[in-house]
Design goal:
Layout lengths: L3 E4 L13 E6 L2 H12 L4 H15 L9 E7 L5 E6 L22 H4 L9 H12 L6 H14 L1 E2 L2 H17 L18 E2 L2 H13 L2 H4 L2 H9 L4 H5 L4 E3 L2 E5 L2 E5 L6 H11 L13 H21 L10 H4 L2 H8 L24 E7 L5 E7 L9 E2 L2 E2 L40 E5 L2 E6 L6 H13 L5 H6 L3 E3 L6 E4 L5 H9 L4 E4 L6 E4 L3 E3 L8 E6 L1
Parallel strand pairs: 1-8, 17-18
Antiparallel strand pairs: 2-10, 2-21, 3-4, 3-11, 4-7, 5-6, 8-9, 9-14, 10-11, 12-13, 14-15, 15-19, 16-17, 19-20
Helix pairs in contact: 1-2, 2-4, 2-5, 5-7, 11-12, 11-15, 12-17
Length: 542
């Protein structure tokens, strides 16, 4: 297992471990309730993760899914670290220029057409997590049954979900003229309305009773073929991969994170190294100098992301070189502490915070930890509905055309070009921190802001010794290579900071919200309840 040593500084105490506790943070309180019930039956964190995932597919249709994919980072009670890649793949008929028309103009197809979807990985991902790490004290059937009951009998929606469903009603109807269950031509949603999804319940029943074959070679596969999404060969070719984690050390804490095709883990380790280099100006939590250095690091790190990262099964990625201290020192040496830099001129666009992804963190009483981020890409993916669930539009995460940004303002190069069966690059950054018998499990949604958000929470928690909940609640900032802009969440700045940043040459934009973090430790659940969403967390006694 590779380790990339960043820095070893001061140790921090997380508190006394209470062996009777489990902790969970997720994007919906019903998912938290289900995790508690799994623990009560003797299940472990990995059993609970399976149940939580399928529950979120019911209660969080914008991002919880069986029509998408994701990543899991694992650290067991025995000290084993692993990562599970259940990212979507391009269909076997995919071509490099499939979304390009005359004059290299990108069409809308990579966002809303049937060809916008990659072959989903979530069902096989959860199946393989259960097979390798499940306790066997709770059956696969028992883990899926709560989600089936929720879909069949319904649940009372929140104000947030009612607003989303009403605002997306025209999109749902336009993309699904033949119908999309309860979402078709429906603008009457209110907080407290019961959402019943009987078609989804039948799909989940099939997955419960027949496993992933029901999805990849059975009735759902046939429906995919019938509706023109994928061939049977596309679905039969899908595989999940257990990959070697990226690991580093930050001030005495072991950092376990996701390797490519996630860009998040590599970028996170580069950020942690850069924030402690000799010439850094980030020795304060907030302030113009800290924000400036952060922005310049981000510009360089996101340039590396665009140029060098993609699917490791389709290219050689020089991870050792990209994390080498000499390389990083050379890359960051160009940072001018008094003047904003500029990325190479490429077509760029405004980066919009997305609601598309969901994250949950679980730690059981034995010390088994799992950090999972899953996605449909855009909120409700392509808005296309099949067999009870919404489909992803992950093909937009490929480099549709070098130098042309995707919906999050991220620009890619040949490393992330479309190819048959290839996994698209991701910003998802599920991460686990370990120090002795102390663990912190964390992650967030947010498109391209995921990486910078995870970095800021880790830095606040470890370097500045903030309580985990305080680090999660803290106002965040974001920057990337393109556009040359620093994004400030409301409450993260004052007039003096703005004046100083502008004096250094920064272009500034303001965000009402960056991310919806979900973090847990041995003794604390730090759900991001202050930001818009339905996040919930709990320390569970059992």
């Amino acid at each position: 297992m590779k380790k990339f040593v960043l820095f070893i500084f001061l140790f921090q105490s997380l508190g006394i471990i209470r062996a009777q506790n489990g902790t969970v943070a997720a994007a919906h309180p019903i998912a938290v309730d289900i995790v508690e019930k799994v623990f009560a039956k003797g299940g472990n964190a990995y059993d609970a993760a399976v149940a939580a995932h399928f529950t979120l597919a019911v209660v969080l249709p914008r991002a919880g899914n069986i029509g998408g994919g994701g990543f899991a980072v694992i650290h067991t009670s025995k000290g084993e670290a692993a990562t599970l890649d259940f990212r979507e793949i391009a269909p076997l008929s995919a071509t490099k220029d499939m979304f390009i028309k005359n004059n290299d103009d990108q069409t809308v197809s990579s966002l809303t057409s049937k060809s916008a979807s990659g072959v989903p990985g979530s069902v096989k991902g959860m199946w393989n997590l259960y097979l390798r790490y499940g306790s066997r004290k709770v059956s696969w059937s028992d883990l899926l049954t709560p989600a089936i009951l929720l879909a069949d009998t319904g649940f009372f929606i929140t104000e947030k979900l009612s607003q989303e469903l009403n605002s997306n009603s025209s999109n749902f109807t336009m993309q699904n003229p033949s119908g999309c269950g309860p979402f078709f031509k429906n603008t009457s949603w209110k907080s407290g309305t019961r959402l019943v999804q009987t078609v989804l319940a039948r799909t989940l029943e099939g997955i419960r009773d027949f496993g992933p074959n029901y999805f990849y070679s059975g009735p759902i596969a046939l429906e995919f073929k019938k509706q023109g999404y994928f061939s049977l060969a596309d679905l039969a070719s899908y595989r999940v991969y257990w990959r070697e984690p990226l690991m580093g050390n930050y001030q005495g804490w072991e950092v376990i994170t996701m390797p490519p095709p996630s860009s998040g883990g590599l970028a996170l380790l580069q950020f942690l190294w850069g924030s402690e280099r000799k010439s850094n100006t980030m020795q304060e939590i907030q302030g113009a100098n800290s924000y400036h250095d952060f922005t310049e690091l981000a510009r360089i790190i996101y340039e590396d992301r665009a140029r060098y990262l993609g699917d490791p099964d389709y290219m050689n990625i020089a991870l050792d070189e990209l994390l080498d201290s000499n390389y990083l020192n050379d890359r960051f040496s160009v940072i001018n502490p008094e003047k904003a830099g500029k990325s190479p001129d490429l077509l760029a666009t405004k980066s919009e915070e997305s609601m598309e992804t969901t994250h949950f963190s679980i730690l059981d009483k034995e010390g088994n930890a799992v950090s999972i981020t899953t996605t449909l890409n855009a909120s409700y993916g392509s808005k296309r509905w099949i067999s009870g669930f919404f489909m992803n539009n992950k093909m937009d995460d490929f480099s549709i055309s070098p130098g042309v940004p995707n919906q999050f303002g991220l620009i890619g190069f040949e490393a992330n070009a479309i190819a048959p069966g290839k996994r698209m690059l991701s910003s998802m950054t599920p991460t686990i921190l370990v120090k002795g018998d102390k663990k912190v499990v964390l992650g967030t949604p947010g498109g391209s802001t995921i990486i910078t958000n995870v970095f800021q929470v880790i830095r606040r928690f470890i370097k500045f010794k903030e309580p985990l909940q305080q680090a999660v609640n803290a106002k965040k900032i974001h920057a990337q290579a393109w556009p040359n802009t620093i994004f400030l969440e409301e409450g993260s700045y004052n007039k003096k900071v703005l004046r100083q940043l502008k004096r250094k040459g920064h272009k500034i934009e303001f965000k009402t919200q960056i991310g919806r973090f979900q973090a847990v430790s041995n003794t604390e659940s730090a759900a991001d309840i202050l930001r818009t969403g339905d996040s919930s967390g709990r320390v569970i006694h059992y």
